């Protein structure tokens, strides 16, 4: 009950980690099944329909339900600690954001057991995703599930924006914030602008499929290219929504293990903002072959290449941070250092794809698959592994095993390059994406075999990481405030794991890398900005869970509203919108209850703090 009702950002971070880990595992199994099907020519392990469902669900699960919540787990765990706050701005909304994400993800994955998963590719291009070509409820699960999960992400983004703007400790100006907080701030702003676009697109597609509208139906005066514009106006910023927090992680890990300040802090901040700004201006580079014409193609080609400039600034700044530093290759730093060349390769192939004439050749081949996996896995997942190993002792009070961590790195990194490096060449010699099998003796056989072996090696790396977590969780809690010894930011000034109120006294920040500055001045802890006093805490509540459950029920009711059931009772409750109405009633009832009942929270008194011996 404690976990169902919690509004503590640190517990919600753990819930996001568990939820994201679950979906990451599901997405990984789907990927392994895809690779097994392609291990040899003319393989008949999977039929074409199942294969289409797997590639759709793998992409959708990994991007929306796998890495995104793990990013949110780190943001939840760390942003309040890094800015010297006791909680996020809206604890209730924080819980609501998690539960709507979880129920949206569960709804999407229920499609496997309720009549077929979505099969139109993770981008759900119309008319493939229209009811004419996708006759099962698969794409309905996609549209409704992602709307619910996306609502959770949007709520989370708003919450982090409000937290960072209003709750920074005294002295913590914007240009003194840690880079992870900065990238999270910019990411949250991007979520605010990007997610409404995909929400609109999903609503329109839902109307087309369930209510018989014709936004994307040519015969009814609609336009299928409109879906591509709406999807990619969200979809390209989404890539940066995923990668910017990883940039933030790398910008925290490398200075710590180089024992140096981050090189070019202000240029890193401005590069982050510039990436976000340009990220909204490049969406049509996914559509070079759509027929937009040479002017549009040229403009989007140039704007895409421009993004390489701020990204290059970041890469050189990380290299210059390590230059001349006392670099120690701990597990977090191995992932951080491994991230740099891997992500750079993804960036270089991105510039190749940005050239419209070249893109005509690369488009819909395995070259594109290799490119975005180098960006998302080689960038995003390497960054997440670095962050999880780095902040694990802070979140859980236990150090992950270094030998097992290094095994995780080497198996995952070698497996990753085996899987995706050869796919560049597969694409260049003509292997298309999304094909269920291929003829022998075209030059595809050996490289596909290598790719599949590499994928299983990555799987081994993830299993070693899970073994590391299980072994570590059996140890007693007992690491120091600053277990790495070279922590630079505020989260390393408080106990591991942090108490529920985070800071007994809000610290006074006197410069960038606030804790390191105090260490250099000979102090062992931060100067407080306030006397010890009562600490206000928010009350736990079950309402976010029930509200999200209501939305889930309403979503199911909407999807099956036009279904022809053999059971008359099912027909009665679904066809007459009773299930949908009931779900909305639950959600709006909870909103009303939340509005009318004034919850003042509770206080931890100074005497209780003294009794705890802190």
Automatic annotation (TrEMBL):
Q: What is this protein called?
A: Cytochrome c oxidase subunit 1
Query: What GO terms in the biological process aspect are recorded for it?
Result: electron transport coupled proton transport; oxidative phosphorylation; respiratory electron transport chain
Organism of provenance:
Paenibacillus crassostreae
Please write the reaction equations for the catalytic activity of this protein: 4 Fe(II)-[cytochrome c] + O2 + 8 H(+)(in) = 4 Fe(III)-[cytochrome c] + 2 H2O + 4 H(+)(out)
Query: Is Lyase given among the entry's keywords?
Result: no
Q: Name one GO cellular component term.
A: plasma membrane
Q: Where in the cell is it found?
A: Cell membrane
Output the lineage of the source organism.
Answer: Bacteria, Bacillati, Bacillota, Bacilli, Bacillales
Pfam families from the UniProt entry: COX1
Q: Residue ranges of the Cytochrome oxidase subunit I profile domain?
A: 1-510
Q: What are the GO MF terms of this UniProt record?
A: cytochrome-c oxidase activity; heme binding; metal ion binding
The answer, when asked if Transmembrane helix is one of the entry's keywords, is: yes
Q: What is its EC number?
A: 7.1.1.9
Primary site of residence:
membrane
> Membrane topology for this entry?
Multi-pass membrane protein
What is the recorded function of this protein according to its Swiss-Prot or TrEMBL entry? Answer: Cytochrome c oxidase is the component of the respiratory chain that catalyzes the reduction of oxygen to water. Subunits 1-3 form the functional core of the enzyme complex. CO I is the catalytic subunit of the enzyme. Electrons originating in cytochrome c are transferred via the copper A center of subunit 2 and heme A of subunit 1 to the bimetallic center formed by heme A3 and copper B.
Residue intervals passing through the bilayer? 12-34, 54-79, 91-112, 141-167, 179-205, 225-250, 262-283, 295-320, 332-354, 366-388, 409-429, 449-470, 542-560, 572-593
Would you identify the family this protein belongs to, as annotated? Belongs to the heme-copper respiratory oxidase family.
Identify the metabolic or biological route this protein is part of.
Energy metabolism; oxidative phosphorylation
**NCBIfam families per record:** CtaD_CoxA
Q: Which UniProt keywords apply?
A: Cell membrane, Copper, Electron transport, Heme, Iron, Membrane, Metal-binding, Respiratory chain, Translocase, Transmembrane, Transmembrane helix, Transport
């Amino acid at each position: 009950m404690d976990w169902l009702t919690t509004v503590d950002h640190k517990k919600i971070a753990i819930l996001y980690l568990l939820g994201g880990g679950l979906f990451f595992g599901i997405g990984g199994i789907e990927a392994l099944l895809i690779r097994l099907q392609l291990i040899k020519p003319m393989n008949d392990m999977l039929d074409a329909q199942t294969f289409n469902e797997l590639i759709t669900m793998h992409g959708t699960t990994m991007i929306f339900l796998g890495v995104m919540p793990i990013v949110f787990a780190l943001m939840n765990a760390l942003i309040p600690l890094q800015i010297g706050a006791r909680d996020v701005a809206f604890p209730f909304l924080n819980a609501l954001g998690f539960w709507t994400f979880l129920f949206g993800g569960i709804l999407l994955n229920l499609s496997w057991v309720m009549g077929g998963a979505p099969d139109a590719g993770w981008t759900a291009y119309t008319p493939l995703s229209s009811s004419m070509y996708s006759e099962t409820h698969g794409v309905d699960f996609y549209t409704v599930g992602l709307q619910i999960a996306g609502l959770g992400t949007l709520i989370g983004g708003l919450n982090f924006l409000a937290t960072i703007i209003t709750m920074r400790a005294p002295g913590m100006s914007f240009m003194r914030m840690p880079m992870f907080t900065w990238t999270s701030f910019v990411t949250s702003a991007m979520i605010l602008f990007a997610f409404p676009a995909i929400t609109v697109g999903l609503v329109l597609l839902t109307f087309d499929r369930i209510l018989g509208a014709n936004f994307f139906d040519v015969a009814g005066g609609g336009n299928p290219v409109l879906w591509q514009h709406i999807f990619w106006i969200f979809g390209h910023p989404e890539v940066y929504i995923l990668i910017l927090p990883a940039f933030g992680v790398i910008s925290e890990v490398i200075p710590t293990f180089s024992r140096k300040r981050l090189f070019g802090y202000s240029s890193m901040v401005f590069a982050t903002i510039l990436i976000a700004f340009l990220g909204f201006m490049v969406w049509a580079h996914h559509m070079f072959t759509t027929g937009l014409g040479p002017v549009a193609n040229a403009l989007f080609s140039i704007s895409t290449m421009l993004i390489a400039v701020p990204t290059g600034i970041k890469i050189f700044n990380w290299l210059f941070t390590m230059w001349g530093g006392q670099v120690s290759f701990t597990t977090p730093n191995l992932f951080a250092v491994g991230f740099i060349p891997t992500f750079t390769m993804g960036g270089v192939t991105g510039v190749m794809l940005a050239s419209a004439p070249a893109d005509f050749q690369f488009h819909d081949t395995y070259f594109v698959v290799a490119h975005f996996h180098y960006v998302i896995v080689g960038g995003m997942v390497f960054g997440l592994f670095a962050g999880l190993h780095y902040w694990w002792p802070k979140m859980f009070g236990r150090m992950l095993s270094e030998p097992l961590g290094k095994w995780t790195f080497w198996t995952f990194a070698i497996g990753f390059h085996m899987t995706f490096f050869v796919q560049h060449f597969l694409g260049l010699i003509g292997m298309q994406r999304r094909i269920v099998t291929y003829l022998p003796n075209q030059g595809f056989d050996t490289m596909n075999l290598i790719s599949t072996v590499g994928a299983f090696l990555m799987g081994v790396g993830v299993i070693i990481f899970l073994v590391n977590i299980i072994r570590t969780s059996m140890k007693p809690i007992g690491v120091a405030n600053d277990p790495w010894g070279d922590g630079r930011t505020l989260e390393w000034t408080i106990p591991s794991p942090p108490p529920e109120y985070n800071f007994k006294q809000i610290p006074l920040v006197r410069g960038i890398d606030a804790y390191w500055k105090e260490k250099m001045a000979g102090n062992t802890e931060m100067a407080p900005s306030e006397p010890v006093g009562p600490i206000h805490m928010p009350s736990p509540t079950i309402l976010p869970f029930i509200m999200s459950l209501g939305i889930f029920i309403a979503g199911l009711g909407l999807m099956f509203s036009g279904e022809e059931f053999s059971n008359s009772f099912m027909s009665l409750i679904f066809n007459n919108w009773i299930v949908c109405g009931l779900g909305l009633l639950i959600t709006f009832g909870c909103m009303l209850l939340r509005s009318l009942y004034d919850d003042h929270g509770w206080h931890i008194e100074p005497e209780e703090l003294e009794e705890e011996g802190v």
